[in-house]
Write a structure and sequence with these properties.
The chain has about 110 residues and is mostly helical. It contains five helices and two strands, in the order βααβααα. The longest helix is centred in the middle third of the chain and has 15 residues. This is AraC family transcriptional regulator.
Amino acid sequence: MPIAPSRTIAIHFVDSALRGARERDIDVWPVLLRAGIPPALLGDSRARVTREQYAALSRGLWDTLDDEFLGLGDFTCKRGLVVLSSPDLATALRRAADFYGFPPCSASI
């Protein structure tokens, strides 16, 4: 049974996340495969991935690029810098959500 689209992520966002690695001529296939994302999905604009696959892709790109900005920023952000430069966990999560464009969360920390 297919996963409901509301619980998945459009392949467009996978493709966008890969842009920084591609611009550095990094082979993205191993990162995709470790995340459980078949590279052939990139050719299907209707394809979707699970949240778990996208999270694994993000972690894989962070490891590969050593950059929390996924190679998309004007400078490299070493892993952990967003958290280390924050006075508390709530601020760190807010900063990360703002950077990645995540919707606001009303949960308290």
